Amino acid sequence: MVLKDVKVVKIEDVEPVPVEQGEKTYIRVLFSVSEAPTYSMRIFEMEPGGHIYAHKHPWEHEILVLEGRVRIRVEDKVFDLEPGTAIFIPPNRVHEYWNVGSSRARFVCVIPVRPTA
Amino acid sequence: MVLKDVKVVKIEDVEPVPVEQGEKTYIRVLFSVSEAPTYSMRIFEMEPGGHIYAHKHPWEHEILVLEGRVRIRVEDKVFDLEPGTAIFIPPNRVHEYWNVGSSRARFVCVIPVRPTA
């Protein structure tokens, strides 16, 4: 059911759900693919040592790091990202994430509600 | 030209551009509507006293407040938002923003690259 009205949501009020294809990593969905008309906004939280396993899918990511130190591999390239850094990951690229810091890492990740490519 | 490869960008490395329909407010475009396939991610910065005038358009916003205190009016409703709070604003609603705090306010705002409604 696509949102027809304003929705206000605090990150802390959304229950964190463990990411199945990862370790020590949680997702909080702010605007879901079923309620958003075009793109869904989610918060990922990775404890120290957290890992999201390598995967790929036919849609892009636009990510902004909010806290901590996030290492992202996209195919054969590795990026170490700090708060205030954003990354665009094109569709159909193998990507993988690690928290390489000693504190919680947090990033906002936007995906389209329908496959892009 | 839609992005075909990874793009990494730091907020601080993007030149802030004054928002024409506002005061004391700047935009930094991380992934533009011409380079992103589905949605564009932008950072807004409002100095104390900053204001974005009332306007509307046929696309939604998904916004996450990063810093400061942002007041948003959507039609006849007013929301005071703090860091870690997100808001979905549907297409075709009159909306208006103020920095109501004493420090810089900053939020990430995502829009679709094509009109939604």
Overall description:
2 copies of one chain form a homodimer. By secondary structure, the first copy, chain A, is mainly β. Chain A has a domain at 26-46 and 61-117: Jelly Rolls (Sandwich), CATH 2.60.120.10. In chain A, 0% of the residues lie in helices and 58% in strands. The first copy, chain A, has no helices and 10 strands. In chain A, strands 2, 3, 4, 5, 6, 7, 8, 9 and 10 form a 9-stranded antiparallel sheet that branches. In chain A, strand 6 and strand 7 (77-81) form a beta hairpin. The first copy, chain A, starts with 6 loop residues before the first strand and ends in a 5-residue tail after the last strand. Chains A and B meet through strand 1, strand 5, strand 7, strand 8 and strand 10 of A and strand 1, strand 5, strand 7, strand 8 and strand 10 of B.
Brief synopsis:
Two copies of one chain form a homodimer. With 117 residues, the first copy, chain A, is mainly beta.
